[in-house]
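User: Good morning. I'm curious how magnesium ion would be positioned relative to this chain. Could you predict the structure with it bound?
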Amino acid sequence: MSEQFRLVSFTLDSAREEHPAAAWLASIGADHAPAEVAAPAGLRAAAWDVELEAASLATLRDLLREETGPEHSSILVPPTLRGSRRSLVVTDVDSTLIEQEVIEMLAAHAGREAEVAAVTERAMRGELDFAQSLHHRVKALAGLPVSLIAEVAADVVPTPGAVELIAAAHASGHLVGAVSGGFIQVLEPLADRLGLDHAHANVLGVRDGVLTGTVQGPVVDRAAKAAALRRWCAADDVQPQRTVGLGDGANDLDLLTVAGLGVGVQPKPALRHVADGVLGLRRLDAVSAALGWGA
Ligand SMILES: [Mg+2]
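Assistant: Good morning! Here's the predicted structure, ligand included:
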C-alpha cells in the first residue's frame, strides 16, 4: 500500500547549490514538479507530494538522514500530519529550542564550565548514561546561590525561528510543549516568555538559598521525554501520530521515535538515524512551514 508523503526542502535564499531533494526523488523514480510552499523569510523552500511504498519510503528516509548537509534542511511529512486536526509539538530545550546548554551556563558561574561541557558532549553523543552524567554535572553546581538561576534564565536565547514556530502552531490551533533534561527553574520562566502550553524538566535541589548539587525526583531522561509526549497527548486529546518531536542529542532518541514526525535540529549522529527531518540550517520555523501552519 502506498501513502502520500510531502518532502519539503529548505536552503538559504542566497544558496548557490541546489538542495539534493530532487536528486533523491529521481533516484527512487518519484521525480516530478515541486508544489508551491511558503518559505520563511531568508529561506527558499520546495515541496514534493509523493506516493511512496514502504521500500521507496525507507530509501528516501535514508537519503534524507545521510545527505542533508549543513546548508540544507529536509523534512518528510507523513500523511498522518497533513490536515488541520490538532497537533502537538514537543521540543527538547538545550541546543534545540534555545541556543545554549543551561547547565554549562550555570557551571560557568561556578568556574567549572569546561569540565561540565566535556561531560555534556559525551552524554549527547550517547557515550554516557544520561542520568549518571546529569548527577555528575549537577554536583559541580553545589553551593551556587539560587539567585543565579534567574540571571541565567534571562540570558537564554531562543533558537532562530523558535518564536515563529510557536506563533504559527498556535495560529493554526496546535500546541507546543518543551521537555528538558535541564531544569524546571530555568524552563518555567522561558515557557512563560514563549507562551508554551507545557513544560517538564528536572528539579534542582535548593537548601538555604544555595544549590545542593542534586536533582529531586526521577531524572528526565530519554524515556521520560517520550512519556511526557504521551501524557500531553492524552491531556490535550491529540493522537500520538499527530505529534512532532524536536531534538538534537542522544537523549531525544525516544522522543523522535514516538513522535509522528521526528525532526533533528543539527542532530548528533546518534539521533540522525531516527529522524524524519533534519535541520542542517538552524531555523525552527522550517518545521511550521513544512506543515503549512500559520500561513
Ligand atoms: Mg538538547
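The mean pLDDT is 94. Residues 92, 94-96, 248-249 surround magnesium ion (CB under 6 Å).
Let me know if you'd like a different ligand tried.
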